[in-house]
Design goal:
Blueprint (H helix, E strand, L loop, with lengths): L24 H15 L1 H21 L5 H30 L9 H34 L4 H4 L2 H18 L1 H12 L4 H45 L1 H4 L8 H35 L2 H14 L4 H32 L1 H10 L9
Helix pairs in contact: 1-12, 2-3, 2-12, 2-13, 3-4, 4-6, 4-8, 4-10, 7-8, 8-10, 8-11, 10-12, 11-12, 12-13
Length: 349
C-alpha cells in the first residue's frame, strides 16, 4: 500500500463539486474508497484468508514438490493470511466506523499501517524468491542443486524479512515524528520523501522488473526443454534405445515432467502476481515525481488517492488469486482439496 488512505487531503478545492451538480471531490474519493476497498475489497480479503489457509494445508500434504519450493509457498501463504487480515482491520474501519471509534485511534491506525506495509514488502520479495528459484532450476538445472538448498532458502527468507523491516524504517520514523513532534514539518517531509522512494523502488519497481526478467527467461527455458524432449519424435532414427535403457529413463522422464509442470504452474502464478502489481506502477511514478513536479492540488490528491485505492485492491488480489491458480492448473491439488474438505477419503492421490 503505497499511500496512507486515511484521509483525502485538506486542500480547499476538495470541497468543490467534481462536476456540475455532482458530489464534491472529497465525496467522490470516499465513494471510490467504498467501492474499491469495501464492496470489492472486503469479499476479496475474506476469500483470500480462507483460500490462503487452504493453500497451506495443500502444500503441507504435497510431498512430491521440492522442499525449498514447498517452504517458500507455505511461508508466502502464511504471510498472505496475515496481510489480508491486517488489511481488513486497517481499511474497513475507515469506511464503516466514525472518527471517534476505538478502531480509528491514530496510534492503532499507524501500527496497522506499518505492519501491513512490512508484510506487503515481505510477500513481494518472497514471490521474487520463487521466481529466482524457478529461474535457476530451469536455466541452470545442475548448478541449482548447489546454489539453492534448504539452508540458503531459510537464510534468504530471513533476509527478506529483515530487509522488509529496514525498508519501512522511513515510514515508521515519519509516522512517529508526525505524532510526537508535529512541529518538525521539515523532518517529517524528508522522511516521507525517503519512504516514497523506498516504497516505489524497493517494494514495487525492482521486484516487478526481476519477476518480468525471470518470467521471460523461464519461458525460454521451458520452450528449449520442450524441443529437447520432443526431439526423438521428430527424428525416429534416434529411437534405437534398448528396452532396458527405456525403462531406466522412465523414472527420469516422469521426474522431469513433474518439474516442468510445477514450473509452468508457478510461472502462471508469477504472471498473475505481476499483472496485479501493475496498478502500483502509476502510484510509484506519482510518488517519485510529486515532490519535484506536482503540488498538493486537487488533481494531484485525486490521482494519488484513486491510484492508491486501485493498487491496494490489486495487492489484496495478489494474496487471493494464487489458490485459484493451483486448483485450476493442478489436478492433484483438486483431489487434495476434496480430501481436506472431507469430500474424498481415498488414501492415495
Amino acid at each position: 500500500m503505497a499511500a496512507n488512505t486515511t484521509g483525502n487531503g485538506s486542500v480547499p478545492c476538495m470541497m468543490q463539486e467534481a462536476w456540475l451538480g455532482g458530489p464534491t471531490h472529497e465525496d467522490f474519493l470516499r465513494y471510490n474508497r467504498l467501492i474499491l476497498l469495501s464492496i470489492l475489497g472486503l469479499p476479496v480479503c475474506v476469500a483470500g484468508i480462507v483460500t490462503s489457509g487452504l493453500s497451506i494445508c495443500l502444500f503441507c500434504c504435497d510431498k512430491k514438490a521440492p522442499r525449498t519450493t514447498r517452504k517458500l509457498l507455505i511461508v508466502t501463504s502464511l504471510i498472505d493470511v496475515q496481510f489480508l487480515l491486517l488489511s481488513l482491520f486497517y481499511l474497513q474501519p475507515l469506511t464503516f466506523c466514525k472518527r471517534t471509534s476505538p478502531l480509528r485511534l491514530p496510534l492503532l491506525n499507524n501500527i496497522l499501517f506499518v505492519l501491513v506495509n512490512i508484510l506487503e514488502c515481505f510477500r513481494n520479495w518472497l514471490v521474487v524468491l520463487i521466481g529466482l528459484e524457478r529461474f535457476l532450476v530451469v536455466c541452470f538445472p545442475v548448478h541449482s542443486k548447489v546454489w539453492w538448498n534448504g539452508k540458503k532458502t531459510d537464510g534468504l527468507i530471513g533476509g527478506c524479512f529483515g530487509f522488509s523491516i529496514v525498508v519501512r524504517l522511513p515510514l515508521i520514523s515519519y509516522l512517529a515524528i508526525e505524532n510526537v513532534k508535529p512541529e518538525w514539518s521539515g523532518v517529517t517531509e524528508w522522511f516521507y520523501q525517503l519512504h516514497s522512494f523506498t516504497d516505489s523502488i524497493l517494494v514495487t519497481l525492482i521486484p516487478l522488473i526481476v519477476l518480468i526478467v525471470c518470467s521471460l527467461q523461464i519461458g525460454r527455458g521451458l520452450r528449449r526443454s520442450d524441443r529437447f524432449r520432443l526431439g526423438p519424435r521428430e527424428y525416429p532414427e534416434r529411437q534405437t534405445l534398448s528396452t532396458v535403457s527405456q525403462k531406466q529413463n522412465t523414472s527420469s522422464k516422469c521426474s522431469i515432467a513433474r518439474r516442468v509442470k510445477l514450473t509452468r504452474g508457478l510461472l502462471i502464478v508469477i504472471f498473475t502476481f505481476t499483472f496485479f502489481m501493475l496498478p502500483m506502477v502509476p502510484v510509484s511514478i506519482v510518488q517519485l515525481l510529486s515532490h519535484h513536479f506536482f503540488t498538493s492540488n486537487c488533481a494531484y490528491l485525486i490521482t494519488v488517492h484513486f491510484c492508491s485505492y486501485v493498487a491496494a485492491l490489486g495487492s489484496q488480489m495478489n494474496s487471493t488469486a494464487n489458490f485459484f491458480v493451483y486448483i485450476v492448473y493442478w489436478g492433484k491439488y483438486r483431489k487434495m482439496l476434496k480430501r481436506v474438505l472431507g469430500c474424498q477419503y481415498e488414501k492415495g492421490i
